[in-house]
Amino acid sequence: MAGRPSRWSLAGQLFALQAAIVVIVLTGVAVAAYLQFDETNRDSTAEEMLGVAHTLAASPDVRAALHAPDPVAVLQPLAERVRTDTATDFVVVMRADGIRLSHPNPAEIGRVFQGTIAPALRGDQHFTETYTGTLGPSVRAVVPVLDGGRVVGLVSVGRTVEAVSRELERQTPLFAGAAVVALLLAAGGSWLVSRWLRRSTHDLGPAELARMYEYYDAVLHAVREGLLLLDRSGRIQLVNDEARRLLALAPDVQGRRVDEVGLPAELGAALAGGEARDDEIHLTADRIVVVSQGAARWAGRHLGTVVTLRDHTELRALVSELQTIRGFADSLNAQAHEAANQLHTVISLIELGRADDALEFATTELAVSQQLTDAVLAGIAVPELAALVVGKAAEAGERGVALQVADGTFVPAGVADPRDLVTIVGNLLDNAIDAAEDAPAPRWVRISGGVADDAVELRVADSGPGIAAADAERAFARGWSTKPHDGLGRGLGLALARQAARRHGGWVELDVAADGSATGTRGAEFAVRLPLVRA
């Protein structure tokens, strides 16, 4: 869904938003810093004025001049000299009643000081203030002149607010430069972030991303096939509902390696390997799945692997049932031909006047077929399994193999799902008949069963070449077979039989003698145990 990018992509919108936030924040910070520096500059100026005033007030020359007949003649030059040396705007010395004895403007001498002097007249206090006097708004300090503990005069030193502001203005380019540098750095960082985001989102807008997520998520969970996305390390990045069902995955498998989530070892190793696979059949705990796997690539980069899973369980069951039905049909067809031959024989014997021989021949054939049917019906209480054994007996007879039901065989009803019983016994009988057919005469397959220790035990033995002890466990692996095959039709029977038995808390094993051959005179013997009460 590579739609046309919107006019404003997510990266573009994020960059614009970040730029606006940065400008607002930096502007606020710059204004706050300017105001803070202005306040600090005023406080610093006030402290400086207070220091100059203290120094002048403590001067013996000032105390002596205040008692002189003409204090102005002494104090005016002294005050102007101090004003010039300290770069202040005014230095005013006054009597205790506030009459000026010095001033930058000589016309103001003899007039009353404009400002607050009351705190300083108490003799133990000094203070600073911003006050509008004859020179305009100024930052000033007022300090008492003491003589023997008595206030004999006052000293006021100040600097106009305009002069203080000029000093602040000299610092303004520094503030502006710092703000511009910070703005450029923030803009550069935002641009890098937006560029990375543009690559990650393929320059799509929020609405397009939301729409893609909604559609993709809906499609992902709606498809009938299982889907797994694995990264290059074999970790699960995405899994849909069907894959969870087929593989019985836990809810928290994302981010874990596919061979560490409880899958059968063979299937986990196959998926973790990452090799291309096409319609491979694998077994899970209770299902048969068809696995296809291919590389996931984007713009030439290898991202991982895509695994698709299809449920083959029901199809396999249908194929088995179809094969059984075909076997029954072939057996019925063969039996029809055999019955026709026997009927012709009986008729011919009667026509030849040998009625007793015809009766004996017909009775013998009926007894042979009825014996197997009676044994099956008497010992096997599961109709589906009984029908299977009768059908397999006919099929085996057509292939020159005698299928025998051991005396005392008993399989009660309800021991397991009939379909699973058919899967277990049918696959064991098929393998036994195949093995016995290729062996020397006499060729036979024997099935027996009974109840012991609250479980049903079944055994299927054959007169075939047998299976080596070294292959006793490998025989149950997917794809293992003693006959050449293409990997599609053979190598699943024993694995399916064991899988079906485990679903009911049972097991299927190959009995092996101490010398490494199958138990019995020759051939293989498989044992099945199914609890009467499902585990």
From TrEMBL:
For whether the record's keyword set contains rRNA-binding, the answer is no
For this protein, the record's PROSITE patterns field holds: HIS_KIN
- Domain Histidine kinase per the UniProt entry, residue ranges: 334-534
UniProt GO molecular function: kinase activity
Which EC main class describes this enzyme? transferase
Provide the catalytic activity annotation.
ATP + protein L-histidine = ADP + protein N-phospho-L-histidine
Sequence intervals crossing the membrane: 15-35, 174-193
Q: Where in the cell is it found?
A: Cell membrane
Kindly give the Pfam families that the UniProt entry links to this protein.
Answer: HATPase_c, sCache_3_2
Q: What keywords would UniProt list here? A: ATP-binding, Cell membrane, Kinase, Membrane, Nucleotide-binding, Phosphoprotein, Transferase, Transmembrane, Transmembrane helix, Two-component regulatory system
This entry's Enzyme Commission designation comes to 2.7.13.3
Q: Which InterPro entries match?
A: 2C_sensor_his_kinase, HATPase_C_sf, HATPase_dom, His_kinase_dom, PAS, PAS-like_dom_sf, sCache_3, Sensor-like_sf
Question: What membrane topology is annotated for this entry?
Answer: Multi-pass membrane protein
Chief localisation class: membrane
Q: Which PANTHER family does the protein's record reference? A: SENSOR PROTEIN CREC (PTHR44936), SENSOR PROTEIN RSTB (PTHR44936:SF10)
Protein name in UniProt: histidine kinase
